[in-house]
Amino acid sequence: MRPTRRQKTGRIAAVTAGALALSIGATACGGDTSGPAGKELSGQNLTVAAVWTGVEAENFKKVLKAFTDETGADVKLVASGDNVSTFVGSKIEGKQAPEVVMVPQVGVVQQFAKKGWLVPLSEKVEMATARNFANVWKDYGTVGDKFYGLYFKAANKSTVWYRPDAFDQAGVKPPKSYEDMLKAARTIGDSGTSPFAVAGEDGWTLTDWFENIYLSQAGPANYDKLADHTMPWTDDTVVKALTTLGELFADKDLLYKGSAGALRTDFPTSVEQVFGPEPKAAMVYEGDFVGGIAKDQFDRKLGEDAKFFPFPGVGGGDAPVVSGGDAAVVLKEGKNQKAAMRLMEFLASPEAAEVWAGAGGYISPNKSLDLSAYGDDTTREIAKSLVDAGDSVRFDMSDQAPAAFGGTKGAGQWKLLQDFLRDPSDPKATAAKLEAAAAKAFGNG
Predict the structure, then answer these.
(1) What residue numbers bound the domain in which 132 lies?
(2) Same domain, 279 and 408
(3) What is the number of structural domains in the chain?
(4) Do 37 and 104 share a domain, yes or no?
(5) Which SS3 state, helix, strand or coil, does residue 343 take?
(6) 384-390 — which CB contacts under 8 Å span 24+ positions?
(7) Span of the secretion signal (predicted)?
């Protein structure tokens, strides 16, 4: 079974048992369920399913409430659980399909489209997407020649988080290149602090390390070929990236408790090792969500005692921007197609993104969103980095792959990169094993 998406995005808040059902709009105010009079969708009902629970669900509820205020539609949000495919399949079979589903992986959007579950998005949604998003986001929502998935929420997975006091003690500054990052790490180690906390117990973090290095070294075009397996994992560019990653993994002085300790460290613990009450390391690489954990779990002040620098360029390459995200899709079996498509138009607007940006815990790929909508400078900087990258942004490669290769504990990339962390001495052999696993998972080996 594929581990939960909440593990992949670092969400560690408790999940409310059972399905979450949130009534939004006129009913939330205790008024007439037909919706505000005179609105274009007054009296119409709409159901949206998403993986989000807790604070994330409450913040998305605010977005849907804004849609209700604008159109009069009565919207209900239901929790899909982390296995969105199983949820949607069961709802379609039971003839209770929601109109709109938020889908967390490119591969799942493609799966739904190939099953015939989705409705292509309207011309109005396409036009709004072309106006407000870099082309790459539409590409990731397109299957064949039809546009199905609108990316409403994104993650910037090219951020290295650090404690300024550890940097100050060692007399180092945030590095501008990968080579300088390792040099700074060694200086930090000499000052008495372990440089990196690495969550090797969670194999997905290791795929993220590889993807950032590979995107910078090999470039977006090769990244795309490797992602869809039109390039074999035995290619020289892969061996080169593994060799670069192996330099970090092989140096026991760079990792807190060495590779053996990293293999016993899960993602939440890696953040605690840097930002917890008894810090052990100076830096932890992962996405923008690290900042939320440092702030919410360990009372760190973003921009003061919890800072980040962009994952630096490798070997003279551009600084990479690897992303993840949630795409809104419209189900063919949903009863109210008109209201569903109108919601998609709204979600493509900067006004919708502004609602959640103001609430926090959110980054939008919408380039028309005024960055002042974000509540703090750190989030603003992370969002700007994502938007400024334009069409050079690339979606998490493992999330584009079949789950057997890119998202299964104890198998595929996760296991093979854990094995490489344990012994990084033979990048060519690891590349060959990765190719064998990829060929099997993609069905061409």
Answers:
(1) 5-156+324-388
(2) yes
(3) 2
(4) yes
(5) helix
(6) 385/156, 385/158, 385/310, 385/321, 386/154, 386/156, 386/321, 386/323, 387/134, 389/134, 389/321, 390/134, 390/136
(7) 1-28
CATH number at residue 22: 3.40.190.10
pTM of the predicted model as reported, rounded to 2 decimal places: 0.88
- A 10 A CB-CB count for 311 gives 26
Same domain, 370 and 416: no
* 232, 363: one domain: no
Please give the chain's pLDDT, 445 residues, in tens.
334 444 444 433 333 333 334 444 433 333 343 445 569 999 999 999 999 999 999 999 999 999 999 999 999 999 999 899 999 999 999 999 999 999 998 989 999 999 999 999 999 999 999 999 999 999 999 999 999 999 999 999 999 999 999 999 999 999 999 999 999 999 999 999 999 999 999 999 999 999 999 999 999 999 999 999 999 999 999 999 999 999 999 999 999 999 999 999 999 999 999 999 999 999 999 999 999 999 999 999 999 999 999 999 999 999 999 999 999 999 999 999 999 999 999 999 999 999 999 999 999 999 999 999 999 999 999 999 999 999 999 999 999 999 899 999 999 999 999 999 999 999 999 999 999 999 999 997 6
Same domain, 167 and 66: no
State the DSSP string of 354-371.
Answer: HHHHHHSS-B---TTS-G
Question: Does residue 395 fall inside a structural domain?
Answer: no
Neighbouring-strand partners of residue 143: 146
Does residue 289 share a domain with residue 163?
Answer: yes
